[in-house]
Each structure stands twice: as C-alpha cells, then as structure tokens.
Design goal:
The chain is mainly alpha-helical. It has 1 helix and no strands. It has one domain. The longest helix has 39 residues. It is rod-shaped, with a radius of gyration of 23 Å.
Length: 55
C-alpha cells in the first residue's frame, strides 16, 4: 500500500512539473509574440524627424 502511494505521489509531482514547464513556455511565447508585434508596429522605436508619429 505504501509503495502505491509513493508512485501516485511521484506521478503527481511529474504532472505538476510538466504543467509548470508548459506554463513557462507559454509565457515566453506570449512575451516573444508581444515583442514581435511591438516591433512590427514600430511602437518601441523613437520617432524620427522624417517619419511622422502615428499617435
């Protein structure tokens, strides 16, 4: 009985680790997408004198 409890606990730990890794990868993907979106809309670049600002 004790051995079964340990294997269940190990499976829960592995599952929680995989969920945590998945959340971290999702967060990094969102950050990368946000950065690329901001780069494509030129929000991060300062306005130059030749190009008018969009706001």
């Amino acid at each position: 009985m004790g051995e079964n409890q340990e294997s269940i606990r190990l499976l829960h730990t592995i599952r929680n680790m995989l969920i945590g890794i998945g959340l971290m990868v999702s967060a990094l993907g969102l950050l990368a997408f946000g950065y690329l979106f901001a780069e494509s809309t030129n929000l991060l670049q300062p306005c130059s004198s030749s190009a008018p600002c969009c706001f």
